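Q: Here's a chain of 172 amino acids. Please give me its 3D structure as tokens.
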Amino acid sequence: MKKLLIPFVAFCLMAFTQVDNADLAVNDKKVPSVKVKTLDGGTFDMANISNDGKPIVISFWATWCSPCKKELENMAEVYEEWQKETGVKIIAISIDDARNSSKVKPYIMSKELPYDVYIDENQDFKRAMNVNNVPHTFLVDGNGNIVWDHNNYSEGDEEHLYEEIKKLVGKH
């Protein structure tokens, strides 16, 4: 029995240590300095994002990703309310490559999405943020620290995000 108990305890300690390290990695990380494209063809350094000390949501998406588009559209429905309550700003980062990036602006315009939208055509920002697949959403505090992230999207996930935003601004 002792032969089984010792490896089990060692495994549990390693598992808990890895969870703590994952939380630290998110909490200690700043938005990296990576240039992305603006919808009008210019460039923008993501390290320069700001929202007057208020939270920022960074949402990675692509035009070919149905869950991504559903998340963006659902957040658009409540965005005005979120802004009034918390002052949050949403930034959408398209990871469409050069072949598909021409579809980004027409999609944004057709859905009237009220976000700042950038294109990460070479996926440099995606790699710098350790995004493996989309949708992937990050919450950044007023000091530029990444404090929360979430991968994938299910209907209603935006409510969990909103709870995290409210906690961040002390309205929870």
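Q: Can you summarize the key feature?
A: Strands lie at 29-30, 35-38, 43-45, 56-61, 89-94, 116-119, 136-140, 145-151.
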